[in-house]
Structures
1.
Amino acid sequence: MRILSLNGNGIRASIKKGLVRWWETTQADLLLFQEVRFEDADFLAQTFPGCWTSLHSAAKKGYSGVAVISKRPPLAVSHGMGHPEYDSEGRVMRIDFPDVTLLNVYFPSGASKPERQAFKLQFLADFRAYVARVEAEVPQVIIGADWNMCHRAIDIHNPIRLDGVPGFTHEERSWLDALEDAGWRDAFRLFHPEGEQYTWWSLQSRSRERNVGWRIDGFWLSPAAVAGAQRCVHLTQALLSDHCPVLLEWDLPTTFE
């Protein structure tokens, strides 16, 4: 199974930058898209003919939202996690295949104001409880997301100066520590222990050219799903937004084929 995760900073903007053609060249099975900023599910289906698509948009137009494009239909899909305050922002989508569940998640950003950071921290607590329920049903769980937070110092370009800013706070890093302590693994770090590898760059000051970035996108695998990881890479040459796509190759259960 080849799974892509991408924050496209608006799917219409990504389409104008070549998203459809790029998707066709990747030979991937699924694309998990975050920050859709879009409400037209019919247009999404028409844009990716022959694919199964699902859109979980936010109540506020032009804001947030997640979508999935798949070459095969799943067993089931569900939008939200039963919390109206998050579900109205289109944050979480669950996609079930035989023996594995994918979660497509757009984590809130707390950078705009303290109230949003508090909202984010509450989301983390409630999302962890939701994940525990999902994992109890299906042990093999893959989360593909814009996490909007960095775990370790090597995941951010200036960890000393940025220590404590939203996205790199003690609370957020501790939340990821606890996930790791529970046996979950950051798929990218299974294969790439070195630093200066990022997935988001500010549009200011030629940050992408200078590789001044944050690693806030990618996959985490439940304990039962870790053994299936074959490869995880950043596709930095795909210039579809201010984020780059992340590709996970995961050993597909035979019952899916």
2.
Amino acid sequence: MTVATPPWDPLILTVAPNGAYKPHGAHPKVPLTAEALAAVAHSGLTAGASMIHLHVRNPAGRHLLDAAAYRAATKAIRKAVGDDLVIQITSEAGKIYSPEEQMAVVREVRPEAVSVAIRELIPDSASELKAAPFFEWLHQERIMTQIILYSAEELVRYQDLRQRGVLPPARDFLLFVLGRYSTGQQSDPRDVLPFLDVLSSPTPWAVCAFGTKESACLTAAIALSGHARTGFENNLHLPDGRMAQDNAQLVGISAETATRLGRPLAGARQVRERFG
């Protein structure tokens, strides 16, 4: 198990306000437009976030990978918060897009940060040859890349891909997904332990979690020197089961946890400096 110890690494707190699937009917504060995303960016920044995980939707509210939509949302967020948040777009397939389409939209947008899932872009050994140039491009363009991993087995595979040179020696940021995207999913803080058991190098990592134990899961990650992604993408509820008022309230809970532990919050400039 590779876990950093104090002095504390400043906490990178990411707000994930909508995801690919949450409808507006799930909560009136699920943002579906560029203007609504900008409002969440502002409130999330005030609550302690240094990064926003950005999904955009089509006019019907469905998941979308589209360069123009990403640019419009980015413009609106920059107008609201300037450079005080790192804007991370998603390449998530959402059961719609092929790996080629996912990589193409990232190349077109050329964002400052992106999240990518190994299981989507490199699902098997046959896909390694196509994916390798894309990951090398991310590295050369100095695009902050977060690698999404859904199990300890995927982490082992990621480390093998790095060792074999399929993935370049970039400053990756790992995201451990505790549980699965399934109806009624409830993550548990102990879900992070299998990842840490096989983490072979001090690569920075974060956690996202589902359900009313989200706060407990993120507390465990923060205490173990990990980082945290929180918001309506994965959870709508407070630790006591009540519906959260908005995304900023969930961000504030993790920021308060960090304060109680004596861990400082990272600002966007620190995140950019760390990941080049």
3.
Amino acid sequence: MQWTKKRINNILFFVGVIVVVVMLFTFDVSFPELWQHICDAGKWMIPIVGVWFFVYGINALSWRQVIRGNCKDADKVSFWRIFKLTITGYALNYATPVGGLGGEPYRILELSRDVNKQEATSSVILYAMMHIFAHFWLWFTSIFIWLALVAYGDPDVKLNTLYGTLLGIAFVFCLIAFYLFSRGYKNGLVIKTLRLIGKIPGLKGWSQRFLEKHSEALQNVDRQIAALHQQDKKAFYSSFLLEYLSRIVQSLEIMFMLLSIGINGGGGIEGYILTFLHSVLILAFTSLFANLIGFLPLQLGVQEGGFMLSIAALGLSAATGMFVSIICRVREIIWIAIGLLLMKIE
């Protein structure tokens, strides 16, 4: 079994390395232009990269709350081990197709060294749900941030028929998602998801065999998912609030990028607040766009398109959108490299 885990670890590691190398040679700009963008960011590259130490730290705290509320042997898992698995898991998610195809299985594999496999599986699934749930709340609250800025008279934020329609669709979409999440948290969702997969042509037989073979284990995982929401509400809501906070802290990255090229909302406290709120909106729209098309490694082209559209919606230039997307890509590659290196550190 240990040999199998080591083999899977090596496969994921080499997949990540290959994708990073591919990304280094597939930037939308030449290396001289890339270097010029990095030089334009200058000293701001330090907080741009460094803020993710705090983002991942908050993510790790959120996941720790889930583990504590879900695992009998949670005390065996130190915060720093969770922190390491958080960074590496996200690195693999960035580097592999279909979002969690690499990161979540890796976290289950590693966490099962400290707690039993069913608890590890339910903890990872619960945290993944919490991560997505917090994204929906970011999108939901961003609707009201947009409306508040319109009411404030921000000239960069408009409310016409097109934007009103899009905000209305987003509002309804989030409400539907909240309902589905509430059902999943109350009743579990693993078995229902596998049954849904079984309706896809060609996967019905596999789904039925998997459900029959692992029926008891899957029911236990679903019970553990439901138990956190029903029995340990403190762990549930503290995990959610921490995960939502990490999305807000992440917005500082975009704010630092805008400040590095002189976009500060006119300066002063009011200008910095406006720039930060604009950054939240840019992050919300870009993450929504990227998650809708989440099957590409490193979100190739998707993230860039999301930044271009969201920044254009706030009246900023295409050059600004290109700058932000490229610097964001550089930061991702740095943290992916850190995550891959951590895979090889015991």
